[in-house]
Structures are given as C-alpha cells and as structure tokens.
C-alpha cells in the first residue's frame, strides 16, 4: 500500500476498496482460527462427557450445532463493520496495530458461549 500525500502534506486516506481488501485479508484469516477454537471446545465437551455424551448425538443435535455455527459466523462478520468504520477514521494507524484485541475478545466470548451450549447439549454440566 503506497502512501500518497495530500496538498497539505498529510497522508491521504486510503480508498474504501483498499480498506475493504485489508479487512477481508485480516478477518478471513482469523475466521479459520475462530472456527477451530469453537470446534475444539465442542469436541472437548463431547470427549469429557463420554460415554454419556454419545447418547445425545443424533440428527437433531447435529442440525442444532450447524445452525449455531452459522450464527457464530454471522456474528463474526460484525467485526467487518467495526474494522471498516475505524479504518475510515483518524484512528486507522493505531487500529491496525490493536485490532487483534477485538479478535481476541470476540473469540473468547464465542468460546464461553460455545462451552455452555456444548455442556448443555452433551449433559456434561457438573457445576464446575
């Protein structure tokens, strides 16, 4: 990305196309990690609940997890709104260095929610 200067010497703001491309590159790479974390949490809850968790597995549960996965990925897309909005602001430089914090907070929140849903689905709630 080349930095062009305005007439007054300040750096020109990148075009929306550049900002959108940057957001896509960053967040789609993160989506792989996000989905892997959620999958590992569900898998761990299943394994820790064996052999009782096996009795809960069926088509309906798989469909529920499919829908929850779709919802989780739609919510992940909200990061694009925040990212593009902040990149269009005067805070762009700092944001590019610190947006990983949004990724970490969002992934952590989704992980906690996935854990509770998984514990309920596999009846592994033991109060701890």
Compact summary:
The chain is an all-alpha fold and 128 residues long.
Give structural notes:
71% of the residues lie in helices and 0% in strands. With 128 residues, the protein is mainly alpha-helical. It has one domain. Helix 1 packs antiparallel against helix 3 and helix 3 packs antiparallel against helix 4. The model has no long low-confidence stretch (mean pLDDT 89).
H/I helix tally: 4
Uncertain ranges? none
- Helix proportion: over 70%
**For the residues shown, what is the average pLDDT?**
89
Which descriptor suits the 3D outline?
elongated
Rounded to the nearest angstrom, the radius of gyration is 20 Å
Structural class computed from helices and strand pairing: mainly alpha
End-to-end Cα distance: 50 Å
> Domains counted in the coordinates: how many?
1
**Quick one: how many beta strands?**
0
What percentage of the residues does DSSP assign to strands (E)?
under 5%
Largest sheet: none
In quaternary terms, these chains amount to: single chain
The sequence of SSEs as H and E is HHHH
Compile the SSE list and pairings:
Layout: H1 16-48, H2 59-76, H3 78-87, H4 92-121
Which structural traits does this protein have?
single chain; 128 residues; 0% strand; mainly alpha; elongated
């Amino acid at each position: 990305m080349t930095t062009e200067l305005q007439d007054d010497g300040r750096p020109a703001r990148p075009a929306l196309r550049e900002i959108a491309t940057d957001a896509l590159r960053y967040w789609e790479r993160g989506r792989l990690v996000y989905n892997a974390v959620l999958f590992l949490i569900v898998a761990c809850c299943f394994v820790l609940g064996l052999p009782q968790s096996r009795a809960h597995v069926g088509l309906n549960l798989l469909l529920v997890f499919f829908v929850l996965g779709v919802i989780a990925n739609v919510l992940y897309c909200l990061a694009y709104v925040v990212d593009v909005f902040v990149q269009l602001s005067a805070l762009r430089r700092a944001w590019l260095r610190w947006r990983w914090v949004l990724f970490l907070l969002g992934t952590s929140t989704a992980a906690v929610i996935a854990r509770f849903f998984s514990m309920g689905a596999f009846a592994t709630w033991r109060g701890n």
